[in-house]
Amino acid sequence: MKINTTTIENYTQSIANQNTRKSNRHSLNKFVKFLENKEITDVTQDNINTVFRDYQAHLNKLKIKASTRNQHLIILKTFINEYTNIEYDKKLKLERTINEPKYLTPKQIQTIYKYTENPLDELMIKLLSNTGLRISEALNITKKELTDLDGEGNVILKVIGKRNKKRVVLIPSELVKELNEYSKNNDTYVFESKKKPNEPMTPRAIEYRFKNLANRIDKKEQTTVYSENLKPHNFRHSFAIHALKNNEINYVKEFLGHESITTTQIYTNLKEKEIVERFKQMKMI
Questions:
Q1: What is the number of alpha carbons within 13 Å of residue 170 lying toward its C-beta?
Q2: Catalytic residue annotation
Q3: What is the three-class DSSP state of 9?
Q4: How confident is the model at residue 139 (pLDDT cuts 50, 70, 90)?
Q5: Phi-psi domain of 196 (left: phi exceeds 0; alpha: psi -120 through 50; beta: other)
Q6: Domain 106-281 homologous superfamily, CATH
Q7: CA 198 to chain centre
Q8: Cα separation of 257 and 168, whole Å?
């Protein structure tokens, strides 16, 4: 089979998500370039395993992260599976990577609060670092959900995360009050877009705000810590580390909605009420 830019364009046109389509096109065109440089005119059942191994070796020579190399190979495997009749050796392994999670310590988070000049930034950081919510989950909280209080004024949020996995998240009562005050003039969402009424803000908008905040703090503190770590998802890591340090190892999996907790080597199946009680025992950062 001839694989060229036209082949890749035809394949990626079937991908619904624009960002996925773009990243797949970019990655697969690198493979096309590799084929051209190697003067490989056809990829067939006879040579697919050799081509795959050679491409893997080629990627290994590039100055890119192991996770990026693996992503290129995953995209290539998906393309081969979905768009061709060629079968490659399923024993061809990806490079195993273990990435240390980036996070901010409670002291660093307090430093961030000191430099925040906008209620939105401070409130979003409080929410992410004290609940373990993903940025998309936080932005989709509605004002109606903040009215579902328990007897202590906390909100027990029902979250549907990745792969439709359900979990409960407790928003502490003092944070609930701040969220209600911030969103009192909004119609539907706690964090509403100013450009598009009745729609939530986008993750990109928060990322842009955090980037500017991080650069300002680094300049004041003469460091690079914040530009490297002040990112929405890293507050989720901060929450996990905080929970672990509070001896909540058994509960981190349930707090974050992970399929497993291989990082702590503990597997549990906890009831919702028990998870909520553990949330209540944690002090806010």
A1: 23
A2: 134, 162, 233, 236, 258, 267
A3: helix
A4: very high
A5: beta
A6: Intergrase catalytic core (1.10.443.10)
A7: 24
A8: 9
